[in-house]
Amino acid sequence: MSTTRPQTLNQEQKLDMIDKLRQMLRKPEGPLTDAHSLQGRKPSQQDAWYISPLTFNGQLIFVADGVGGHAHGEFASNLTVELFRRSFEADDTLIDNVETYLREQAMQAAAQVLAKSQSDPDYHGCGTTLSGFLRYGQRFRTVNIGDSRVYHFSEGGGLKQLTKDQTVVQDLVDQGAITPEEARQHPQRNMMYSAIGQALDEIRIDIGVEHELKRGDWLFAFSDGVHDALTDDEIASVIRDHLEQPGLCEALTQAAYAAGSKDNITAVAYRHA
User: Fold this and answer.
1) pTM confidence score
2) Cα separation of 257 and 41, whole Å?
3) Which of 87, 123, 180, 256 has a beta carbon 3.0–4.6 Å from 229's, enabling a disulfide?
């Protein structure tokens, strides 16, 4: 009876096999979160962000971009983060309606920011945006107030904006009065009609429809320091260039700064496993 001897690999074949193994192992298997924030060219940091620990209710991630001046904006964005953190991390009650939860928590934050604005002259006019998502299992829903944004990215489908800016200029785009390209240069592009800190009956809380996540999908929350400086194509290019490297969010904030952003710059990310 004859036997077949194992094939002996030469050096080139060994290196090729090692390279293939590296390709297989390049992407980590577990979920990943990342965040980076730059004060940038502004005299103070008014952006805040939050990545919750993983709980039985899922994971809550968002950015808050303060408005209304130095102490005003910083106070409003950080208070919003703190109120959501306390609620999400301390509450052991199962969230049975994601939309109701997000809407109620946003309104509670809005009420407290408004109360401070009305009771303390030093904080008159303080406010903040709020843009992020609650991921539960294989699904998620977005929440948005103002002009920060949530994006979805997949290697097959590219980059897609999931939230809509609550601005006068976005309304002009929706009406067909100006193009998205013209909106980027419009002098009123940052004029919001809805923000935490306004009268409660004037705030619009946009809750997105339920989306399903696939393995390898990315979700991003950006303050406008990112997307005012970079086009969606430029954001997608930075993401693709850094998908397999650490520091993706830092790469995005640095790219926005290099592109001339005059604002605070914050990027927060989640990759689904």
Assistant:
1) 0.86
2) 8
3) 256
